[in-house]
C-alpha cells in the first residue's frame, strides 16, 4: 500500500472524510492544512491573524506562510502520511517534492453543483475536526459530534458566497496539479460520488 498520499480535489470533494477513514482503517497520519490554519486562527497566533482574511474570502493563504507551516510538520512525519489540502499550488508541490517523495496523488472528482450542496450543508467539529452533512451524514444527536461530544458549527467559509470563490480559486490555482502529478505518473482519479462507503471502496482499490 502507498505510504505518502496527496489528496487532490475541489473543496467539498471528500478529502477530509476519506482521509479520516484511511487513518482509522490503515493507520495513516493525516496532515490537514485547513485544520492547522483554523487552529491557528482560533489560538490567535501570528499565522492565524494573517491567514484569516484570505480564508474568509475563499482565497489561498500565501505560499510562503503555508510552506513554512508545513515544512516542520512534514519533517516530523514518518510512516504513512496523508496530505489533505497541501500542495494547492505548483510552487507548493515543488517545495514538497524537495522534501519528500509522493507515492500517489488521489484526485477526487465531483461536479460543482454537488460541491455547493455538500459544503453549505456541512457541519464541522471544532474539537476533533470530524465533518458531517445535515442530510447525507448527519450526527446521531442534532448539533453534537458523535466522536467527541463537542458542539458542531458551520465554518465561516462554508457559506454559498465564499464557496463560489473557493471553487474559482481551486480551478485557477490547484487544478493545474492534476496535470503536474499526471506527468509524474502519480495521478489516480476516483469519482467522488455515491455514499461515503462506496467511495471509500474505490479509494482503497486506488491506493493498493
Ligand atoms: P476546503 O478543501 O474545503 O476548501 P480546507 O479546510 O482545506 O478547505 O481549507 C480552508 C482554507 O484554508 C482555504 O480556502 C485556504 O484559504 C486555506 N488553505 C488551506 N490549505 C492551503 C494551502 N495549501 N495553500 C493556501 N491556502 C490554504
Ligand atoms: Zn468531535
Q: What's the average pLDDT? A: 95
Output the CATH topology of the domain at 4-110 and 173-207: Rossmann fold
Number of strands: 7
- Ligand species: adenosine-5'-diphosphate, zinc ion
CATH class category name of the domain at 4-110 and 173-207: Alpha Beta
The percent of residues in helical segments reads: 40-55%
Q: What is the name of the CATH architecture of the domain at 4-110 and 173-207? A: 3-Layer(aba) Sandwich
Radius of gyration: 16 Å
SSE string, helices as H and strands as E: EHEHHHEHEHEEHHEH
Structural classification: alpha/beta
Main-sheet strand order equals: 2-3-1-4-7
Dominant shape: globular
Architecture overview:
- The protein has 208 residues and is of the alpha/beta class.
- It has a domain at 4-110 and 173-207: 3-Layer(aba) Sandwich (Rossmann fold).
- Helices cover 49% and strands 14% of the residues.
- The protein has helices at 15-26, 33-43, 46-57, 63-76, 90-99, 112-120, 160-174, 176-183, 196-206, and strands spanning 4-8, 29-32, 81-84, 104-109, 122-124, 131-133, 187-191.
- The strands form two sheets. The chain has a five-stranded parallel β-sheet, with helices on both faces.
- A hairpin with a 6-residue loop joins strand 5 (122-124) and strand 6 (131-133).
- Helix 2 (33-43) crosses helix 3 (46-57), helix 4 packs parallel to helix 5 (90-99) and helix 6 (112-120) crosses helix 7.
- The longest helix is centred in the C-terminal third of the chain and has 15 residues, at 160-174.
- Adenosine-5'-diphosphate binds at residues 11-12, 33-34, 37, 54-55, 58-61, 66, 85-86, 88, 92, 157, 166.
Amino acid at each position: 500500500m502507498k505510504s505518502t498520499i496527496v489528496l487532490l480535489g475541489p473543496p467539498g470533494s471528500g478529502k477530509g472524510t476519506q482521509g479520516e477513514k484511511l487513518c482509522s482503517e490503515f493507520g495513516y497520519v493525516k496532515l490537514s492544512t485547513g485544520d492547522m490554519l483554523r487552529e491557528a486562527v482560533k489560538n490567535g497566533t501570528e499565522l492565524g491573524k494573517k491567514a484569516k482574511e484570505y480564508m474568509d474570502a475563499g482565497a489561498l493563504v500565501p505560499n510562503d506562510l503555508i510552506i513554512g507551516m508545513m515544512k516542520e510538520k512534514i519533517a516530523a512525519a514518518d510512516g504513512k502520511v496523508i496530505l489533505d489540502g497541501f500542495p494547492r499550488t505548483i510552487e507548493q508541490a515543488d517545495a514538497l517534492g524537495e522534501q519528500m517523495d509522493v507515492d500517489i496523488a488521489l484526485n477526487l472528482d465531483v461536479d460543482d453543483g454537488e460541491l455547493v450542496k455538500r459544503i453549505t450543508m456541512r457541519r464541522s467539529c471544532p474539537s476533533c475536526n470530524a465533518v458531517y452533512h445535515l442530510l447525507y451524514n448527519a450526527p446521531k444527536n442534532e448539533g453534537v459530534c458523535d466522536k467527541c461530544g463537542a458542539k458542531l458549527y458551520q465554518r465561516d467559509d462554508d457559506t454559498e458566497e465564499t464557496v463560489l470563490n473557493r471553487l474559482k480559486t481551486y480551478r485557477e490555482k490547484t487544478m493545474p496539479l492534476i496535470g503536474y502529478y499526471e506527468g509524474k505518473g502519480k495521478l489516480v482519479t476516483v469519482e467522488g460520488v455515491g455514499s461515503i462507503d462506496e467511495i471509500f471502496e474505490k479509494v482503497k482499490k486506488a491506493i493498493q
